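General statements about sequence and structure are easier to judge against a single worked case. When preparing material for the folding task, we compiled for one chain both its residues and its backbone structure tokens. The amino acid sequence and the backbone structure tokens for this protein are reproduced below:
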Amino acid sequence: MTKQETALYKWLEQQNEKGVLKIEDIDTASIQLHSLIKGSCFWPQLMGMSDVMAEDAVMQLAESTADLFLARYLV
């Protein structure tokens, strides 16, 4: 499956077309969002640098990541 077929990529395209988000390079924006999540949650746990996150910590991470991403791209 190519990048353009992922649900996230399609969603970013749709929101950009609707004018909800202003994204000049959807590939980069998609990579940035994945990197924010993986860098804060996935890789530290996988590498044993942090414990498995509790549900409240996961929700806090999700919200702060969304806030950060939207601060850059929300119209």
